[in-house]
Fold this protein.
Amino acid sequence: AVERTLSIIKPDAVAKNVIGEIYSRFEKAGLRIVAAKMLHLTREQAEGFYAVHKERPFFNDLVNFMISGPVMVQVLEGENAIAKNREIMGATNPKEAAPGTIRADFAVSIDENAVHGSDGPDTAAQEIAFFFKENEICPRTR
Ligand code: CMP
């Protein structure tokens, strides 16, 4: 089925100037960018987005990293988009990510791992709504 998923290019990858290279990976995988914005997250936004992790030991480091610079946030649409995006991102820990994946190629550590992608249909819907109003999403008409 055609799905939508929420993707974030994190501050490490924005700083490395590889937004375009990562967008190219999405496009080559058949994922369409149907919404996008660059943001420098506030602490409140980062804490809200990652609220599910707030009891985890890495929560503070995660929030501080995510507000350390601008991020690029996008909605990707396509057949099986959630799993497809996870496949091209590679494992959360870049040291375990398959060769040729975004994290293997652009990330150095589990803390600074270049990209985020929704992990399932419910989180995708929630995460998309966190950043985008319905009228900010632009499905293809041709
Ligand atoms: P992300 O998919 O954005 O979701 C939460 C992030 O926390 C994750 O990517 C990692 O960058 C970061 N993180 C740091 N340590 C861990 C850990 N031990 N397990 C999972 N995520 C971690």
Summary: The first strand starts at residue 2 and ends at 9. The chain has a mean pLDDT of 98. DSSP finds seven helices and four strands in the chain.
